[in-house]
Every structure is written in C-alpha cells, then in structure tokens.
Amino acid sequence: MVDAFEIDSDAKLSETKANASTIDSEKVLVFIDHEEKTIYLWRGAKAQLFKKLMGTRVAATLSHSYPEYRIRPITEGSEPAAFLDLVGIKRS
Q1: How many Å apart are CA 67 and CA 12, to the nearest integer?
Q2: How much is the pTM?
Q3: Closest to 73 measured CA to CA, from 25, 18, 15, 29
Q4: What angle do CA 32, 26, 62 make, to 5 degrees?
C-alpha cells in the first residue's frame, strides 16, 4: 500500500494518487511505501525552494509517525529504480 501527498503552497499535505501522472516538475511529493517501510520525498526540478524546504520538514514530521520507516529524498532526474516502479514509470 502506498499513500501519496503533494506539498501545497501552505506547506500542507494534500492527498493525491501514487502514479506517473502525479509527477510534475513544479511539485514536491511525498510517497509513503508501507510495504518497503520507506518515505520518498520527491522534489521536482522546477519546484519552489519554499516547497522543497517544507517537504523536508514534512518528511521529518512523518518519520515521527513511522519511526521504523526510512526517508529517501529524491531529486527529479535521479530517481532510483524502486521509486520508478512504485509510481509506474517505465525505465528506458
């Protein structure tokens, strides 16, 4: 099971879908992969610096709710294979 959230301009989490159509260069997204016990913090290349900073803060706060989960920050263009598989992006 995966929970997906977007960091909005008020630094709040807005629930979204965990799929390739969610990925947008102007967004900061958080994906909680319960099976792998990982919190992915994905930062789009064109996302506002404020959103990127708030994403880091939100991921840290989530780690208190999920202490056994690890946080994996990801920069657009440097996504690991496990993340690409999670959101359904085909590797080239």
Answers
A1: 21
A2: 0.90
A3: 29
A4: 25
